[in-house]
Each structure stands twice: as C-alpha cells, then as structure tokens.
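Appendix B. Worked example

We walk through a single record from start to finish. Start with the input: the chain for DinB family protein, Ammonicoccus fulvus, length 162.
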Amino acid sequence: MVNALDAATGDERGVLLAFLDEHRRVLREKVLELDDEQARRRLVPSLTTPMGLLKHAVFVETVWFVCRFGGRTRAEAGIPETVDESFSLEPGDTLAGLAHAHERAVAMADQVISRLDLDETCIHPVMGQLSLRWVLTHCVRELAQHAGHADILVEQILAERK
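Next comes the structure step. The output line below is what the pipeline stores for this chain.
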C-alpha cells in the first residue's frame, strides 16, 4: 500500500490507487474506533450508521470491481441488489466481521484492478460505458465522502462519553 503523498509524483494509475487505498483505510480505521453497539447508532434519518458505512464500503468494492469488471453477479458475490440494502445491518453483523469482509473485498477488487488498463470499460445499466479510470475516480470520491461521514458520526458518538 502506497500512501497518497508518496505517490505525489507517480503516474496516473499510481496516484488513483494510492488515494483509493488511503480512503479505504481511513474509513475502516475511523469506524473501528467504536465498539459494536456504538457503531450501530443512527444519528441521522437515513440508514447511515458507522457500521453501515463499513458494510456499504464492502458493497462498493464488490459491485464496481468484482461484479462490473470481474463479471460476477451480485448474487454470486454475496452482495445485495440495491444500494440502500448495502447499509442495512443484520443482527449478526459485527465490526470485526465487517472489517474482515472489507479487507477481503479490497483484496478481490485489487486482483481485478491489477489485470486492467485504465481505459478498459464496464457497462453500467444507467450510466452506460464507464472506464476503469472513471470508476476509480468515482470510488475515491465516494469513499472519501463516506470517510468524512464516518469521522463526523464517530466524533459525535465518542463526545457523548465525555
């Protein structure tokens, strides 16, 4: 794993992958500051919880890379059919289990990414043909956004202890 600063003079692929890795790590580490009970807390009207963000990150890695570029169906990959479902927590979900699932999803995504050129494409049912370059940029943005959400939620939850 290369951090984004180390990739500051790297090529386009190296920079994209470094930022992707950084936001993957930041999101996972931020949510893991909580215990399971805290991580299930809903502080906003949506399905967004710290644990739900981590579960959604598993979905993001899997749907874009394993499914869209890797050719597996959502059912084969074991992910839900809708984005909203990807935030839904099951009674048996734990931070440790989701952190492990996230690490596995990242590893599978990285295997797919490593075989592709930035100009290779996938088909999205609404947006049409998308390059790996576009998808990587989209995932960097999405994971950065969710890492920010996690940071705010975790800060609010931990502040209650003081």
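Two observations about the output. Residues 132-159 form the longest helix (28 residues). The chain has one domain: 23-159.
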